[in-house]
Design brief:
- This protein has two domains: 105 residues, Orthogonal Bundle (Rna Polymerase Sigma Factor, Chain: A); 94 residues, Winged helix-like DNA-binding domain superfamily/Winged helix DNA-binding domain (Arc Repressor Mutant, subunit A).
- Helix content is 64%, strand content 0%.
- It starts with a helix and ends with a helix.
Length: 220
């Protein structure tokens, strides 16, 4: 499969200086991909395959279609690598291609989603000035936050994420699971940073509420 992808590649070196290479270690691999290095391509695929499937799954109705969107994304990467100028990280560029492919495959709703108060939010008093929970539930810290950071998708967490409105779920997955910055998520989803913060707050609040209910039901 890697050879089939790479036959689309160009061979002109990436226009990336040493500073950008220091910031984004993937750029060295990307330069090797452009030179036809199949091993470098396989390394990138192995590194991002799981993350890409998780992100794509938010837009499509099945794992099989998510897999197709991911494969189509890698073809797009190789075909479009000549246009990559290093203005964003490779991961951000990759996810931008992926989201566009997945949206097309899944036929999801348009990007402009109203942010009206469609559900109650958690009281501001439950957060510190830094945006963290003032009194985190012990089981939430051990069972949920670690899973989010590690990207381990238990049935309970996956079900809770599926309960979120689609745009909130997108932001929570990209920020809390995949670790993208606020600016990157806003750019990827075509929303302002302010709207991104609102969506993240509401998504985290609703997710916590759902998980608190589950943990309480388990007697934890």
């Amino acid at each position: 499969m890697a050879t089939e992808y790479l036959r689309f590649g160009a061979h002109r070196p990436l226009p990336v200086g040493p500073t950008l290479r220091a910031v984004d270690p993937d750029l060295e691999l990307l330069a090797r991909v452009r030179a036809g290095d199949e091993g470098a391509f396989v390394t990138l695929v192995e590194k991002y395959h799981g993350s890409m499937l998780r992100v794509a799954r938010n837009y499509v109705p099945s794992e099989a279609i998510a897999e197709e969107a991911v494969q189509d994304t890698w073809i797009g990467v190789v075909r479009g690598v000549e246009k990559f100028e290093g203005r964003s990280s490779f991961r951000t560029w990759l996810f931008r291609i992926l989201i566009n492919r997945a949206r097309t495959a899944g036929g999801k709703e348009p990007r402009n989603v109203p942010l009206g108060d469609v559900e109650p939010s958690v009281a501001a008093s439950r957060f510190t000035a830094a945006g963290a929970w003032a009194e985190p539930l012990e089981a939430w810290e051990t069972d949920a936050d670690d899973r989010l950071v590690a990207g381990t998708w238990s049935d309970t967490l996956r079900a809770a994420l599926d309960e979120l409105p689609s745009r909130q779920r997108e932001v929570v997955v990209l920020r809390d699971v995949e670790g993208l910055s606020s600016q990157d998520v806003a750019d990827l989803l075509g929303v302002s940073e302010g709207n991104q913060r609102v969506l993240l707050h509401r998504g985290r609040s609703r997710l916590r509420s759902l998980l608190e209910h589950e943990l309480t039901a388990r007697g934890r």
